[in-house]
Design goal:
The complex is a heterodimer.
Chain A: H1 6-15, H2 27-32, H3 37-66, H4 75-97, H5 99-105, H6 109-113, H7 116-127, H8 132-161, H9 172-187
Helix pairs in contact in A: 1-8, 3-4, 3-7, 3-8, 4-5, 4-7, 8-9
Chain B: H1 2-28, E1 34-39, E2 43-48, H2 53-59, E3 78-83, H3 90-93, H4 98-103, E4 105-107, E5 117-120, E6 129-142, E7 145-154, E8 165-170, E9 180-185, E10 195-201, H5 207-215, E11 221-228, E12 239-245, H6 249-262, E13 267-274, H7 283-292, E14 295-302, E15 314-315, H8 319-325, E16 332-338, H9 340-352, E17 360-364
């Protein structure tokens, strides 16, 4: 167990260890769904919600089921199915009881099942030996960081629509270049705190 | 050995528990029971809730046009939802215009059935059916155009308005791996309910036209669905101006046949554009209409006339005789059929000549 303050961990997972800009996880939906700020924010919220809860669930499964039985090596398969089941369960409940929230997040939930940032956070939590509180801070912070990155990209893409992009770079090409530049910018934060 | 059994037991336990939770959720939270769909305030159907409106309607044999198959990308399956459709989804906003959203227009494939819903669809869609037919006749009428007669063997009688189209299904064949549907206007008269005629041109590399021109033979089975389309004969007493090129003659032919069958007495001029003499077809049928219709004039125009051709008709584009004809725009309406370029230029010309835009009906062949 490492002794990082959960608040430090929270800030670090947004700025210095951002899931997209430092670890390049969750890129597919990051590139595909960043066409407009409103939808990006919706997807970001859904990712944050699912990240926070699956990190807790996977923490409990790992510490209280897999570790006591010496089955740590099963963590990949266990994490994947618990994420998939959680997402589907949430989708059903939200759709029935919270129509307004479903309206905002609904269509993104299935996308998140296969978002590798979610599995990545659960695995980092195990590798870095976080406590429950630290895991919550890390999961929530990673979600906020992911949201911030995709919303920023959506804003930049909006600007790009009005400017002339060389033909060969249109679409994913220029998006990847921008992402790289954003990542370079975020490297500036890396002096503040290092968590990995 | 114990290790293996233990591992499998733990995994089965976890997976089993999650499966149990999901099934429980599906039975309780995910069960919307039976939902009533009320269509145009007269037809009511009951379907299992939870499904989307498009597939629920098609399982009840009501076919809403859809090209993407319910992925929410084509924007064809628009229906008007009066109440019970839930909120408009973000992905619909790109395909449904703002004023349509205010009227309640939704994409049927994105409307999830959770409660009783009331919708409005064009009355004609009740009429859309799937048909299976035998190719009775398939023959070349020009080097690039075939005339088909399809005798309906399954699906019952077809009921359509002259000018409407059907979607012909080309199954997978040697040059195409998937089944595609293409729209072709019906050339036969609406009075003939047990067969349809189509006029299909050959398009280099076209999946359906290649199938029809190179593979389809007399006696083969084909399927089609329809009828669709807002381009059809309007009943009034205005003089009719018809303009078509190539296979665009099909819906006009259907309209002329319908007029002959019902003994309609309207003045009517048909301007038909083609490149060479070889590209003209059905001249005998047109001659026949001249004799049997009340006041019919057929004006073919050829844009390429060879030095040896014996041609006394109009030369150049079909617009020239049309301009001469359009000296007074009063009490006239127009039916246009052909390529988008041709239609755009003719619509522009007719408006310049003073014709009311609302009285120009057209069908753009893509």
């Amino acid at each position: 167990m490492n002794g990082l303050n959960p608040f430090v961990l929270f800030a670090a997972s947004i700025f210095t260890s951002n899931m997209i800009l430092a670890n390049f996880l969750g890129m597919c939906s990051f590139i595909a769904v960043s066409k407009d700020i409103k939808t990006s924010l919706g997807l970001g919220q859904a990712v944050t919600f699912v990240l926070t809860f699956t990190t807790v669930i996977n923490y409990l499964l790992y510490r209280h089921v897999l570790v006591p039985m010496n089955l740590e090596y099963l963590r990949y398969i266990v994490f994947i199915i618990s994420i998939a089941a959680f997402v589907q369960l949430v989708e059903m409940i939200v759709e029935r009881h919270l129509p307004i929230l479903h309206h905002a997040l609904g269509i993104f939930l299935p996308l998140i099942t296969v978002n590798c940032a979610i599995l990545g956070v659960s695995l980092f939590m195990v590798i870095r030996k976080y406590s429950l509180i630290q895991s919550v801070a890390f999961g929530f912070g990673s979600g906020v960081g992911w949201t911030m990155a995709i919303v920023a990209l959506a804003g930049l893409k909006k600007r790009l629509n009005e400017s002339r992009v060389p033909k060969g770079l249109k679409g994913a090409g220029i998006t990847l270049i921008i992402t790289g530049l954003m990542a370079l910018g975020f490297m500036g934060f890396s002096g503040m705190v290092q968590i990995s | 050995m114990n290790g293996i059994v233990g591992t499998v037991a733990v995994m089965s336990g976890i997976t089993g528990f999650l499966a149990f939770l999901l099934t429980l959720a599906l039975r309780t939270v995910g069960d919307y029971g039976m939902v009533e769909i009320s269509i145009n305030e007269k037809k009511k159907i009951e379907v299992r809730g939870g499904d989307n409106l498009l597939s629920a309607l098609s399982s009840e044999k009501i076919f809403i046009p859809s090209a993407c198959g319910g992925k929410g990308t084509c924007g064809y399956c628009k229906v008007k939802v009066l109440h019970g459709g839930g909120a408009v989804l973000p992905m619909e906003e790109g395909l449904v215009a703002g004023d349509e959203i205010d009227e309640g227009v939704r994409l049927a494939c994105q409307v999830k059935l959770k409660e009783a819903i009331s919708i409005e669809i064009p009355e004609d869609l009740f009429n859309v059916k799937e048909y299976s037919a035998l190719v009775r006749k398939i023959e070349d009428i020009t080097p690039k155009i075939k005339h088909l007669v399809l005798e309906i063997v399954e699906g019952g009688e077809i009921d359509f308005k002259p000018g409407q189209y059907v979607q012909l299904v080309a199954p997978p064949y040697e040059e195409s791996d998937e089944s595609v549907q293409r729209a072709y206007s019906i050339a036969s008269s609406p009075a003939d309910k047990d067969f349809i005629e189509l006029i299909i041109g050959y398009v280099e590399g076209g999946v359906c036209t290649t199938y029809v021109h190179k593979y389809l033979k007399e006696g083969d089975r084909v399927s089609f669905n329809g009828p669709f389309g807002n381009f059809f004969y309007k009943d009034n007493d205005r003089e009719m101006i018809m303009v078509a090129a190539g296979t665009g003659m099909a819906p006009i032919l259907s309209i002329l046949r319908a007029m002959r069958n019902s003994g309609i007495k309207r003045r009517c001029s048909f301007f038909f554009g083609a490149k060479t003499k070889e590209d003209l077809f059905f001249l005998d049928k047109m001659q026949n209409f001249k004799e049997s219709l009340f006041d019919f004039e057929f004006v073919p125009a050829l844009s390429r006339i060879g030095p040896d051709d014996d041609w006394e008709g109009a030369r150049g584009r079909v617009t020239e005789p049309l301009i001469k004809h359009m000296e007074s725009p009063e009490n006239k309406e127009a039916y246009l059929c052909g390529s988008p370029v041709m239609i755009d230029s003719i619509v522009k010309l007719l408006i310049e000549k003073g014709m009311d835009e609302e009285l120009i009906y057209y069908d753009k062949f893509q």
